Amino acid sequence: MADELEPLRAWYRTWGTCVAAVDFASARPLFASDVVSFGTHATFFVSGLDELQAGQWQKVWPMISDFEFLVDELVGTINGDTAWAAVPWTSTGYHEDGTSFDRPGRATVTYRRDGDKWLGTHTHFSLRPGVPSQSFGKP
User: Staple partner for 42: which of 48, 56, 57, 96, CB 3.0–4.6 Å?
Assistant: First the structure.
């Protein structure tokens, strides 16, 4: 039986590769230009792809390592040309003294279909409770 959520799993895999590589340019085409988001750094809320990159991605991605979406645990729904999916993720963060810590969390994305691809229209990231909110990057 086909996995109807595979297109969303594939989308998260692609985005996760971008996050891990700190590749903003490759991540941008995955999103609608009018995306609305909030997350671990972006206060409620950032509007538009430029604000998302500046207010969230550029503050987080360079400061962590080992980022991965756990797509086997994805839950979601596709309904015609719209969809949503939530997935946990893992990463490594760094305290100010350079020591590392596990930095798990969860993400939810809503989508709209654009031809044969899905575009993220809303993202919400949160750290697992108790995880330090700031990572200072590798020493």
Answer: 56
